[in-house]
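fyi for ur records
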Amino acid sequence: MRHSALSWPLTRRAYLAHTLALAAAPALAGAAQRAHQRWVVINLSLEPDSLDPTMAASAAVGEVVHYNVLEGLTRIEENGSVAPLLAQRWQMDARQRTCTLQLRQGVRFHDGTPFDAAAVRFSFERARAPGSTNKARKTLFDNIAHIATPDAHTVVLGLHHADAHLPFRLGENTAVILSPASAGAAATAPVGTGPYRVQQWQRGHSITLEPASTYRHAKTLYMRGATFRFLYTPEAQAAALHGEEMDLFLHFATNSVRGLVADSRYQLLLGTSSSKGLLALNHRRAPLADLRVRRAITHAIDREAFIRTVFEGRGTVIGSHFSPSDPGYVHLAHRYPYDPDRARALLREALGSAPLRLSLALPPPPYARLGGPVLAADLERVGITVEPRPLEWAQWLAGPFKGDFDMTLITHVEPLDYPIYTDPGYYFGYDSAAFRQLVQRHAQSESPRERARLFAQLQRHLAEDAVNAWLYASQVGTVVRKGLRGVWMHYPIFVHDIAALRWESEEDTA
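which gave:
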């Protein structure tokens, strides 16, 4: 495991200069050749730690396999609407407690085994089993009271509580259907029903997909394959772009893209997503268990300046674990305005004259490495000594994500994932019986007006408790080669649908 050698404090120029050597990656085929071969090369800013999105935490997993290798019962479109996929249709009862799904027939997994109701039942029972690390366990699978399979092509889901978002949740990558015969190997060799299969995973470099001969529409596939290339830094990405090695760059949180769009062969798409950027605080650590200290930290951060500095102004200040794209969003950023004097007063009230030293864990994405010094400077101005800890992604998953941290700068990209705050075992360790009761009341309510009122209360409760220091909802920046069609601008979920992509030049000459 390689440790970062980045120095501190870290300016944007120093950060880019540090990674210049990484730009010397082997060149791939040029754009014209890839268009002729009907191939696409996509940059990932993080290498997945697994290829099983039903058990792994990284959003990069879904970027590679969702819609491409693994499919779910429903499909989420760019505008957030839900369409059929492995389920041809579904129907919710009047109380939204029972969902009956009719499955698509004649579908096979890449290993030749049939997709049927038994595969759905197996996948969902695996996701909700004791010890499951599925990210949607709280939001989806723990709410499934029973699963019935009256025949090979029908699945009936009975819910503990009504969930109007169930069809959407079934379309997230956490609910993809795995082959029972090979699910145990999904982390390295996923077997799905999608149009492509994993041809090669070259650790530290790339993942290559090739068409799956078992796919139900294999003869109509336009793209003959895709390469996901791991380039972590803006400097390496810019070098690959100017060398015509890449066709698409997606930034969860849009950092400096000015250099990436200087080349007239590319265009920049700025869109929305459900992502939330936050300074996560460990409630298991004594000083951070004190509400006054958490509020002081939030008052100490100039979030508008953070967005200007790190994202070149492309983002919105938020005040709770909800995105402006969420239906029923309440803007709460005003709850903790930038106020260093108030922050100092709260710290004196909580700690007296005792010094406060906190470590700041920084995962590899540029928003964290560039944003870390900004946060550290704000906190140090109010008397908090900050110790930076730049980490590789595997280190972050093994450390902060397991609860070993004081503070960490991270972006959560999952939509409507507020139930994570009902789990005291989650990495930041928030334990509030009142919030759990509020979530339960919201889930059990069958009145739309009451649900809307409770949804607003959920947001205000987290803000009042200053559970974390929420910073931004950033724009998603997609830098795409001109002539490549079918790329999303908005990302209700993070996915690259390779089968939907087209090279314009090929279409024009067909």
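Residues 23-45+195-271+477-509 form a domain with the D-Maltodextrin-Binding Protein; domain 2 fold (CATH 3.40.190.10). thats all i got for now
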